[in-house]
Backbone:
């Protein structure tokens, strides 16, 4: 089992979640589409050669984003990350994948 955490602008959160959930990620027992969301502010500065969704090269940008956390079975994690990257508006979305261990 894995924990998938990603950061997405509030305006695109539902579309990205739908894409990730469509892979089967976010299932806990008899429940699906399970996640936890935390609001925050992301910051980045596009470098020369970047094609940013927001902002412009060389200028610092701040965006209201959501941190979205969910669990994902081992055999689905690659598909979930691919769906996340495809649906996300950013050229380089920020995300983490952590293996979970049972006790």
Residues:
């Amino acid at each position: 089992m894995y924990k998938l955490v990603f950061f997405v602008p509030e305006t695109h959160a539902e579309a990205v979640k739908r894409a990730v959930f469509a892979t089967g990620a976010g299932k806990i027992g008899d429940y699906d589409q399970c996640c936890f969301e935390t609001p925050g502010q992301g910051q980045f500065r596009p470098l020369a050669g970047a094609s940013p969704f927001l902002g412009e090269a060389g200028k610092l940008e701040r965006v209201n984003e959501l941190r979205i956390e969910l669990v994902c079975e081992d055999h689905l994690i690659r598909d979930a990350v691919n769906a996340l990257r495809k649906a996300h508006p950013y050229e380089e979305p920020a995300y983490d994948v952590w293996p979970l261990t049972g006790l």
Q: What stands out?
A: The domain at 2-99 is CATH 3.30.70.120 (Alpha-Beta Plaits). The radius of gyration is 14 Å.
